[in-house]
């Protein structure tokens, strides 16, 4: 079954609860070869005890781990160093679908993280170099001049990732698939990982 927007595919029989949530997740996510990556809300445990959240790109899903990339100096990186757990929320309103994935986070090896950098747009590659608090504090004209200067100075050769470019993987422990319906109640399937594999519960939406 094909659905609109960035949504991938769904089961023909949405009453079915496949045993493996990661296979279903792979169907819901866009084709890995699609250069446009889905957005998600990445929630972490704040160092002050309050939750923290922001939007990031889901760089990849290999059928087991979900990957995202960021700056080593970012708040999320500090929070994940303290508590390596996170929740990813992806929503496709046009398809009436949401998936919430919670799990354990680990840093990627630098060589692995570096492989994603060339797949980002030139603007995002430049941003990885220039997105500092120091520059953010400068007036807009100065920020834009610094950007144009750096871009021109590095026009001849492809950019390499800065040392602050880092990647993380999330290994799912809980996966909750939400489906809405125009003429009926929404509905969730919640998968929780345990010693005997995945347990499955049907929940109200
Ligand atoms: C559409 C969109 C996509 C974004 N993608 C990323 C991303 O892939 N990685 C990233 O580090 N920040 C991304 N950001 C910026 C984050 O939302 C956030 O502002 C930044 O990473 C700093 O977050 P932190 O201070 O909580 O660590 C994106 C923001 C938007 C609005």
UniProtKB/TrEMBL annotation:
<dbReference type="Pfam" id="PF01243">
    <property type="entry name" value="PNPOx_N"/>
</dbReference>
<dbReference type="InterPro" id="IPR012349">
    <property type="entry name" value="Split_barrel_FMN-bd"/>
</dbReference>
<comment type="similarity">
    <text>Belongs to the pyridoxamine 5'-phosphate oxidase family.</text>
</comment>
<dbReference type="GO" id="GO:0004733">
    <property type="term" value="F:pyridoxamine phosphate oxidase activity"/>
</dbReference>
<dbReference type="InterPro" id="IPR011576">
    <property type="entry name" value="Pyridox_Oxase_N"/>
</dbReference>
<protein>
    <submittedName>
        <fullName>Pyridoxine 5'-phosphate oxidase</fullName>
    </submittedName>
</protein>
<keyword id="KW-0560">Oxidoreductase</keyword>
<dbReference type="InterPro" id="IPR019576">
    <property type="entry name" value="Pyridoxamine_oxidase_dimer_C"/>
</dbReference>
<dbReference type="InterPro" id="IPR000659">
    <property type="entry name" value="Pyridox_Oxase"/>
</dbReference>
<dbReference type="Pfam" id="PF10590">
    <property type="entry name" value="PNP_phzG_C"/>
</dbReference>
<keyword id="KW-0288">FMN</keyword>
<dbReference type="GO" id="GO:0010181">
    <property type="term" value="F:FMN binding"/>
</dbReference>
<feature type="domain" description="Pyridoxamine 5'-phosphate oxidase N-terminal">
    <location>
        <begin position="38"/>
        <end position="148"/>
    </location>
</feature>
<dbReference type="GO" id="GO:0008615">
    <property type="term" value="P:pyridoxine biosynthetic process"/>
</dbReference>
<feature type="domain" description="Pyridoxine 5'-phosphate oxidase dimerisation C-terminal">
    <location>
        <begin position="165"/>
        <end position="202"/>
    </location>
</feature>
<keyword id="KW-0285">Flavoprotein</keyword>
């Amino acid at each position: 079954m094909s659905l609109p927007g960035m949504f991938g595919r769904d089961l023909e029989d949405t009453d079915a609860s496949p045993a493996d949530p990661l296979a279903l997740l792979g169907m819901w996510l866009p084709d890995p070869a699609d250069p446009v990556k889905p957005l998600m809300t990445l929630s972490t445990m704040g160092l002050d005890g309050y939750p923290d959240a922001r939007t990031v790109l889901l760089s990849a899903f290999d059928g087991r781990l979900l990957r995202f990339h960021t700056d080593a100096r970012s708040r999320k990186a500090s929070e994940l160093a303290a508590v390596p757990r996170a929740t990813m929320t992806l929503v496709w309103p046009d398809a009436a679908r949401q998936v919430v994935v919670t799990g354990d986070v680990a840093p990627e090896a630098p060589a692995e993280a570096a492989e994603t950098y060339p797949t980002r747009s030139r603007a995002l590659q430049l941003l990885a170099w220039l997105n500092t608090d120091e520059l953010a504090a400068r007036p807009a004209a100065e920020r834009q001049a610094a950007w144009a200067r750096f871009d021109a100075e590095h026009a001849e050769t492809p950019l390499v990732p800065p040392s602050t470019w880092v990647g993380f993987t999330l290994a799912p422990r809980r996966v909750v698939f939400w489906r809405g319906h125009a003429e009926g109640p929404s509905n969730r399937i919640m998968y929780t990982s345990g010693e005997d594999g995945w347990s499955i519960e049907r929940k109200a939406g």
